[in-house]
Amino acid sequence: MKSFSKKVLAGTTVAAVALAGSIGVLAAQEKPVIATVVKISGIPWFDRMNTGVEAYQQANPDVVASQSGPATADSAQQLQIVNDLVAKGVNALAVVPMDPAVLEGTFQRAMDRGIVVVTHEADNQMNTLADVEAFDNADYGAALNERLAECMGKEGKWTTFVGSLGSRTHMQWVGAGEENAKKYPGMELVDPNNESFDDANATYEKAKEILRKHPDIKGFQTSAGNDVLGVGRAIDEAGLSGKVCLVGTGLPNPSADLLESGAITAIGFWDPQKAGMAMNAVAKLLLEKKEVTDGMDLGVEGYNKVSVRQGPGKGLLILGNGMVLADKATYKEHLF
Amino acid sequence: MQKTGAQLAMLLVINGLLLVAGGLISSGSFLSIFNLQSMASQVPEIGLLAIGVMLAMCAGNGGIDLSGIALANLSGVLSAVIVSSFLSVTESGAAFSLAFIAGALLVGLAGGVINGLLISRLNITPILCTLGTQMAFMGLAVVVSGGKAVTVGSPALLSSIGNDMVAAVPISFLVFMLVAGVVAALLKFTPYGLWLMLMGTNPKAAVYAGFPRNGVIVATYAISGTLSGLVGVIIAARNVNVKFDYGSSYLLIAILIAVMAGVKPEGGYGRVVCVVLSAVALQLMSSLLNFGGLSNFVRDFAWGLLLLAFLAVGRFDIAGFLSPGRRAQTPSVPVPQAPK
After folding, report:
1. Average pLDDT in the A301-330 region?
2. What is the domain range of residue B123?
3. A57, A113, B38, B221 - which has most CB atoms within 10 Å?
4. Closest residue to A104, CB basis, from B240, B291, B293
């Protein structure tokens, strides 16, 4: 027994050293590999994106497309996955950064190695060849607010929720909403920019507080995915469904009950499935050394006529028109 | 005593197996020089934090340092904000780099000394104390940075720490090895090391024996804090930016590494070389799973299995048949057993 274990130990050590010593050569891939990396895996939003990546793979057998993501919401874990993929030698990265700033260094190293880098939800990313956004954030915020104003009869008190004050897109949305509301002198913004931290329960408590403080409030515009659920529940429990308007970012499936009861007026979102497909489509175009031009059709619904601008860094900023506003009547078309 | 050898042998075997498995799965590309470099430059952050945790654990009396990554982020953020207020990255790159590194190390040292003083003078339980300071450090980093990422930039010196190689080995990894060596030497050859281990084994006896208890505790947490500061420098060098919430998952991983390395949670025993190997093993495993395109949830599962395997090694005397030759050797650190 003793000598056997010893032999095993010696054997593995020798084998490991021998293998480590012989520098492996990257096996030449016949098909280009596009690796999609999301913020966190196993949540509905990115599961939906995965269906897009799979659909893209089916439609484009000439590339290898797959999705991965960290198990915990930590930018360091996402960074590690990207690092490993770069080392593995993928041809293109399609990343939804947890934190664009943290990935800058790695993206720079990846691009230095000739890897195509495409991002999503990161319009401030410097080191990327192209950032794909579903829509212009200002347009989206204004559209949400327009829908809210319509429901409120263009007058009355309203307030806003953001995931956190540091969340760039959320602040852009409510900012554009406030801008839009200035068109209607009857609309009065009270206690704006409540932080929800994307926690439905905390949002529910906060919304109850606001309903007590302002019994005459008429509207809520929310930003993080779980906000509509928290605020909707507070409205529902107060028996104010249909009397208080609620428009915000949310997903159709979780919001279904509250949409049916009338607690949520409308939800706005973009389809992560389409965004995943669009990222991969752009990555493939760049791999083939083709140009992405203004008004181009990426072959993905909502990205049929993209507008292309110069991004904050060297790369392009590609804006689609993938915005979806759904209410009680229409949400069933987008169940996910 | 035999455990020392068993743990080390086990870690070597695991590392070897992971390399072999990686080579087989990826048909060689896992062992390409580029991937080895990539993995080597990912290890230092978590490895240095784990050494800090190990030192705190060795001090005994429930010693642990939960504030590691928070202090690392604070070091990077605070140093970047202060230094960039009087030096420009573009104009005086070298001076900026040096000032930034010195600043981060000082912040780390100060944070560690605070931990040490709170624990030794006020007799606060380490887990509560460092939990408190962890939140305080993180909160301070949020306030200083306004919750945003702080750009450090890439002046030549910093950028070379993050990106360059010496003899095909990433500089950050060399720094890690050097620091690990220094800490190991400190534990082995100085009275401090002896005091630390003996105090961890039996705090009461240590006090009656006239050990400088407070001094040892403050020194321990100060070293741990300085290591955090160094982690802050490496993060900044590699990522160009520093942010308060970077690496929130590192806290538990650092503890996992220390436990896997056979560091005794109740104090009195721990070897730096095992911590280094255990950090490398975790890195190999997670990179391997990323190479295989497996879900990251599998990784958590695999880490759990690995930890259980190591605990089993610690529990049963596998040392006897794994390394009979090692028995004769004198152990590197004298580990007297406390009478229970």
Report:
1. 89
2. 44-271
3. B221
4. B240
Mind listing the domains of chain A with CATH numbers? 33-134+272-334 (3.40.50.2300), 137-270 (3.40.50.2300)
pLDDT digits (tens, 9 = 90+) for B63-84: 888 999 999 999 999 999 998 8
Count CB neighbours of B5 within 10 A: 18
**Rg for chain A (alpha carbons), in Å?**
23
Chain A CB contacts of B240 under 8 Å are 101, 104-105, 108
- Which string of DSSP letters, residue by residue, matches A180-235? HHTT-TTEEE-S--EE-TT-HHHHHHHHHHHHHH-TTEEEEEE-STTHHHHHHHHH
Whether the Cβ atoms of residue A161 and residue A194 lie closer than 8 Å to each other: yes
Query: Among residues of chain B, what percentage have pLDDT more than 90?
Result: 33
Q: What is the spatial distance between Cα B62 and Cα B126, in angstroms, rounded to a whole number?
A: 7
> Is the Cβ of B61 closer than 8 Å to some Cβ of chain A?
no
Q: How many domains does chain B have?
A: 1
- Rounded-to-integer distance, Cα B164 and Cα A89, Å: 19
Task: Tell me phi and psi for residue B268, to 5 degrees.
Answer: 95, -10
Given this model, what pLDDT does residue B231 score?
A: 94
Parallel, antiparallel or unpaired: strands A116-120 and A92-95: parallel
Is residue B329 assigned to a domain? Answer: no
* Residue B316: band (very low, low, confident or very high) from pLDDT cuts 50, 70, 90: low
Evaluate whether residue B39 is within a structural domain.
Answer: no
Quick one: closest CA in B to A165, which residue?
Answer: B147
- How many Å apart are CA A23 and CA B149, to the nearest integer? 38
Provide the pLDDT confidence category of residue B286 given band limits of 50, 70 and 90. Answer: confident
Question: What Å distances lie between residue A145 and A152, A153, A175, A267, CA to CA?
Answer: 10, 12, 10, 11
Cα dihedral A115→A119→A125→A126 (10° resolution): 30
Judge whether residue B330 has pLDDT over 50.
no
Helix (H) or strand (E) segment spanning residue B136: helix B126-145
Confidence at residue B314, expressed as pLDDT on a 0 to 100 scale: 66
In a domain, B307, yes or no: no
Q: Of chain A residues 54-73, which have a CB less than 8 A from chain B?
A: 66, 68-72
pLDDT tens string B218-268? 999 999 999 999 999 999 988 888 888 888 888 889 999 998 888 888 888
One-letter amino acid for residue A38 of the chain: V
Torsional class of A203: left (φ above 0), alpha (ψ -120 to 50), beta (otherwise): alpha
Q: Is the pTM of this model over 0.90?
A: no
> Could you tell me if residue B145 is inside a domain?
yes
- CA-to-CA dists, residue A292 to A126, A131, A289, angstroms: 18, 12, 9
Q: How many CB atoms lie within 10 A of CB B24?
A: 12
Instruction: Check residue B318 and give its pLDDT.
Output: 53
User: What is the C-alpha to C-alpha distance for residues A336 and A318, in angstroms, rounded to an integer?
Assistant: 25
Q: Are A284 and A34 in contact (CB under 8 A)?
A: yes
Return the closest-CA partner of residue B280 out of B30, B42, B85: B42
Which pLDDT band, with edges at 50, 70 and 90, does A20 fall under?
A: very low
Query: CB–CB of A26 and B245 under 8 A?
Result: no
Q: Do the chains contact at B45 and A164, CB–CB below 8 Å?
A: no
Task: Mutation target for B interface from A13, A19, A64, A126: give the one with most B CBs within 10 A.
Answer: A19
Q: Concatenated DSSP letters for A319-336? A: E---EEEEETTTGGGG--
Tokens linked to A77? 């874990």
Cα(A122)–Cα(A232) distance, integer angstroms: 29
Distances (CA, A) of A4 to A9, A112, B20, B323: 9, 48, 20, 11
Q: Which of A25, A102, A164 sits opposite B241 (nearest CB)?
A: A102
